[in-house]
Amino acid sequence: MKLLALGTVALDTVKTPSGKRCDILGGSATHFALAARFFCDVNLVSVIGEDFPSKHLDFLRKKGVDVSSIRRQPGASFRWSGEYRGDLNAAITLKTILGVLSEFSPRINPGQRKISNVFLANVDPDIQLRLLETIKSPRLVALDTMNYWIDTKRQSLFKILKKSDIFLANDAEARAISGERYLINAAKSLKRLGPEIVLIKKGEHGVIAYFDNTIFSLPAYPVDNLVDPTGAGDSFAGGFIGYLAKAKKINKNTLKKAICYGTIIASFNVEGFGVERTSRLTLKEVNQRVRNFKKLMHFK
Amino acid sequence: MKLLALGTVALDTVKTPSGKRCDILGGSATHFALAARFFCDVNLVSVIGEDFPSKHLDFLRKKGVDVSSIRRQPGASFRWSGEYRGDLNAAITLKTILGVLSEFSPRINPGQRKISNVFLANVDPDIQLRLLETIKSPRLVALDTMNYWIDTKRQSLFKILKKSDIFLANDAEARAISGERYLINAAKSLKRLGPEIVLIKKGEHGVIAYFDNTIFSLPAYPVDNLVDPTGAGDSFAGGFIGYLAKAKKINKNTLKKAICYGTIIASFNVEGFGVERTSRLTLKEVNQRVRNFKKLMHFK
User: Fold this and answer.
1) SS (H, E, C) B241-295
2) pLDDT band, residue A91 (cuts 50/70/90)
3) Nearest residue on chain B to A224, judged by CA atoms?
4) How far apart are CA A171 and CA A154, in angstroms?
5) Chain pair A-B, CB pairs under 8 angstroms
6) What is the ipTM of this complex?
7) Strand partners, A10
8) In the CATH hierarchy, which top-level class contains the domain A2-297?
9) Is the N or the C terminus of chain B less surrounded, counting Cβ atoms within 10 Å?
10) Are the beta carbons of A299 and B215 separated by less than 8 Å?
11) How many CB atoms lie under 10 A from the CB of residue B26?
12) Residue among A182, A200, A294, A298 with most chain B CBs within 10 A, to mutate
């Protein structure tokens, strides 16, 4: 099954209580792809600058990711620098260099236009709309966003929400769009904006999903060694959307399994800086932890 | 099975987005008892003032609660007044009148000294210690506290923690005592202070428990109609400790079931002001929601 993912491929500098890494491979599309690859052939749509190390593209290729629509443009690569202090749920952004991202216009090849499963990670909603318009027959469209677009491009965001099947938001975003503080009400309110499935990511508190008039909750997998939360949300999205894209039909059971796979892959992601842990992750390890998680929650 | 619970019996004035109630029956011991009564014969140890309406004691008696050690003393009853605004997870305390609580010295009768299951709700740790010393052969001692005692009576708190089998804390308290921001580390750190079981209450995000080198998480039950969160933590404790006290032995399975019952009874508690919902709650309704919750989380 093919899956097209629009997002960022970035160079991250991250400091957490566990240490620091400079200019490591990051970005929403990267983390998404490394999780979704277990279920789908992932095609990334992104932009990088002249200074972006080719070894990172080689690495993605080796992981089976199609990088033909990651365009290299004149200028600097997108860079993010952040720190996690006491609260590992919330990064403090120290610096953002948009670079080539500021004039990003996604282009895909004719073959990719036929891909029917699409993930639109957090970029300008107008860019998300533009890419979606080039898709011939979308079957599953999943959308992510961030507070910045909620504040500055609300109308475009509402337009793309109407065209989406799945909306992923973190708790702050869900509250900001819906105006509801209580997340269950927020989820219901977001569903009225278009998507069949609303999924709210709560970091260390897990996720809640709203689908078919039912609220599902799943806690995060309890990780002993929390190193770097960067990309956990995109890892979750990758496992979740990847699993759903592969599933023949979406019902309550496949949705719960997809949430579980997203949760588990995200739990591996936070055990290392950047892609350190997910780059060497195997499906066998994922399945083992899925079984352990189910066992942990099961009782007679 | 008998269960002795030390805590407050109060008159609450509460304002939430759903409305306002004045001088309604509240207090940690009250909410605890109304949940634990489904599993145990609850004996309350508390103090009330001259102005405390007798109808509330009659009500507790009718619910099967032994109120013989709720002493009426000269002076005003303990009153708490609070408001929930946007964030239904955190109350804003508007006013606290300690009244008779400020000179509370718990006394129990000889029969109650033989009760081996004890819940010590949030009061001065020196008072908790004093009561515990009068218990002949404690089997299961569960402890709750609050930030005020962590700040002002740390040594006494550590002393009673050493004598406790179960420690219940909310996320802020767990972080304040342990100095750990990440709750899984906080739980592990708290266990080193004495209790075999550490349970961290996270409000709308559910709970995590640490027991036998294993972390268990359970999300909150998704409630449609969140009216008043006051007492949810004590309702949880009542269902949780009540179930464990009744269980012949505590293992991972009984612990998970106890967490589930606590979660479900707390979910009913928040559907009404004060004890409005839990006062007319039946075990049949509880079991039905437990089954529904298990079904919600189950997938193939």
Assistant:
1) HHHHHHCCCCCHHHHHHHHHHHHHHHHHHCCCCCCCCHHHCCHHHHHHHHHHHHH
2) confident
3) B184
4) 17
5) 83
6) 0.84
7) A26
8) alpha beta
9) C
10) no
11) 28
12) A182
